[in-house]
Amino acid sequence: MSDLEGFGFVMPHWFYWGWLAVMPLIMMALDRWRASRRSDDEEPPVVMSTETPGELQAEEDDPLKRYPDAGSNWFTRSIDWISEKSGLFVSFWTVNAVCFYFFEVVMRYIFNMPTIWVHEGSFLLLGMQYLLAGAFALLHGAHVRVDVMYNLLPARGRVGMDIFTSTIFFSFALVLLVTSWTFFQNSYSMGETTVETWGIQYWPVKAMMVLGSAMILMAGVSKLIRDIALFVRLGQEDVR
Questions:
Q1: Residues 6+ apart with CB under 8 A from 99
Q2: Residues 135-178: pLDDT tens digits?
Q3: DSSP-assigned states of every residue in the chain
Q4: CA-to-CA distance for 7 and 113, rounded, in angstroms?
């Protein structure tokens, strides 16, 4: 008798991993198709700015807003494109978590047949999403920053501070990459699975740790290149 018998529908492992790989691509393709179907003569909606005068002034003082092309080359554009698309890709996974838990509520409270895979599947999904979205967050400046002194510096000083503190970032990113690779190797070699009854493979999650840390590292390199170019540009502006 199978350990899974009597649990109702149990999502196959192959379908879980395959769906996570294909579903965002389908959603992204549908979004592009929908955008292409919009009529060219459709009048765009009027968007009222909700930013305060202080926020608008902060944007004007942002050196990246003044020199958006600083340090831009094929390498930085490629890394930024990957970071942007990776964030969009994993954002669609959130839809799966909502659907999974809706299915769990229906099965548990209406049919009295709680699942054995929904919580674990959502837990792994959101964990991988957190790791893979790191490069997207770095690209858009969404990581937590202790800016007590940072905001008091002039524009060139803030860029210089970013360059200086990048040494801490790269130390963390390299340790994360090496550690994740070790975790992945060990998990794959032993065929690690979760301890719950569903018993799904763990090594793909560890592989996402490696991929996520590598993308964060490359996004950091792209940011450092742009920061150095911006630092030089601002220095030339001060001389003039």
A1: none
A2: 999 999 888 877 778 888 888 888 999 999 999 999 999 999 99
A3: --TTTTS-----HHHHHHHHHHHHHHHHHHHHHHHHHS-TTPPPPP------HHHHHHHHH-HHHH-TTTT--HHHHHHHHHHHHHHHHHHTHHHHHHHHHHHHHHHHHTSS---SSHHHHHHHHHHHHHHHTHHHHHHTT-S----TTGGGS-HHHHHHHHHHHHHHHHHHHHHHHHHHHHHHHHHHHHT-B-SSTT--BSHHHHHHHHHHHHHHHHHHHHHHHHHHHHHHHHHHHHH-
A4: 7
